[in-house]
Amino acid sequence: MPGSDRYTVIGHPIAHSQSPKIHGLFAAQTGQNITYDATDIAPEDLASRFIEFFSHGGAGMNVTVPHKQHVLPLVDQLTARAKLAGAVNTVIRLRSGGLLGDNTDGIGLLTDMMQNLSAELKDARILILGAGGATRGIVPMLQTVKPQRIMISNRNAGKAIKLAEEFNTEGNLSGCGYADLASKAYDVIIHATSAGLKGSLPQFPDGVIGTDSFCYDLSYSNVDTPFITKAKSLGCKNSYDGFGMLVEQAAAAFELWRGVKPDTQSVIAALRQNQAPE
Ligand code: ATR
176 and 97, same structural domain? Predict the structure, then answer.
């Protein structure tokens, strides 16, 4: 499109990314003249291809697995939330020409859980399964809504304990292994491991999920994820995958780039329909 600003999402692999569709719908809805495509970049080519994109006039970029941590040294400035998360999912080219690294994953999750799905997070007892990059990205944002407790549980217990210590500014955060979890229902359970991508599940005790628990899987799929299947099998009435978070983190990035807030509900509905299993 002549005169349009160019955006891309980088990752490896990237072919199945929904981001071009999501941003295409946002642009059509808000009348913004942009192009947004997907760029597969192998880890060894990250620095050169990143620099090339912006030196050829790229206006902004989304960053996904496995590059989120590795673009940190490639930007000129970081927002506080990107610094805390230790990861960047959105790059903004500033008027000065400098590059700002931000992270909209945490706010995307909060918006989906609280606004779209009416989850009660204030004073809630929250369990996060997994202690990798995804958990690091969401914990600082969850702390802002003042939950009663956040327990981080992980296969490698030491990693969960270390992460909990690092973010324990409010004194309400702890870490443990799955076997150390008491078999007592949490109000909110967030699945943040990468096991789902491989079709497996972390080995947590069934009792942590109750019928009234709110279960959220950061992964998404056109069929129930293993975590959602498990939650449903335990009688949980409220279980959701991370598709809404995907759209909300994209909306936050779009607003940073274009200064207009897109409507997310219509985009979530349209893409869910396209995603439905045949
Ligand atoms: P990252 O680079 O974001 O940290 P990762 O190394 O794939 O991603 O791990 C993300 C999370 O998924 C970690 O909590 C990891 O657990 P460990 O720290 O114990 O490795 C978790 N994970 C990955 N595969 C898993 C599996 N099969 N069962 C349980 N947890 C798993």
Answer: no
Lowest mean pLDDT across 33-42, 210-219, 244-253, 267-276: 267-276
**Number of folded domains that form the chain:** 2
Q: Six-digit token pair at 172?
A: 């309400």
103 and 85 Cβ atoms separated by less than 8 Å: yes
Atom of ligand 1 nearest to the CA of 159: 18
Q: How many CA atoms lie within 13 A of 87 on its CB side?
A: 21
**CB atoms closer than 10 angstroms to residue 85:** 27
Domain CATH for 77: 3.40.50.10860
* 162 catalytically annotated: no
* pLDDT tens, position by position, 175-198: 999 999 999 999 999 999 999 777
Please give the single-letter amino acid code of residue 61.
M
pLDDT for 2: 63
* Residue 258: Cβ-neighbour burial (10 angstroms; 0-12, 13-18, 19+): buried
Query: What number does the ligand 1 atom closest to the CA of 200 have?
Result: 27
Torsion angle, CA of 189/66/75/92, rounded to 10 degrees? -70
Question: Which tokens in the block code for residue 78?
Answer: 């970081």
* Mean pLDDT computed over 131-150: 94
